[in-house]
Here is the input.
Amino acid sequence: MLRLEPIWKLLELAGDPDNPTAEELTELFNRIQTIAVIGLSRDPNKAARRVPSYLASRNYDVIPINPYADKILGNETYNTISDVPASVDLVVIFRPSTEAGQFVIESAKRSERPAIWLQEGIWAKSEIREVRAQRVTAVQNMCTYLVHQSLNKGNEA
Here is the structure.
């Protein structure tokens, strides 16, 4: 499984031994289609815009959650994850660690129980522990872009 070696390294760097395994992250990206991004930025120079733009370019449906914009990436924005009418497979959170926990809890309340992903540098240890206890897949302190890129090396046309 040399293909998973870069993911193992990213998991090690993330520093959360309870993050999903490389195999589980592979399975997650294979099954998701709709990604809600809390904190998707209007600023194209920020990671909170570049990463979701990359995911959209890889044929994921990206739903922006940003109460300060009407449209981002050509899609209608929503004020909160609770306002999104569509089914969501993954919630990616681009908010400071001091705010992230509330978004983790709110996301876990959705009926479809989407996976929750806190970007690199973002932690919500007690809230992540709480949703994991409810059997919600949750990742913290990892970059979705780096993981997706690592999983798809050699698969790009």
User: Anything to note?
Assistant: The beta strands are 34-38, 61-65, 71-72, 75-76, 90-93, 115-118, 138-139. The helical segments are 5-14, 22-31, 47-57, 97-108, 125-133, 144-152.
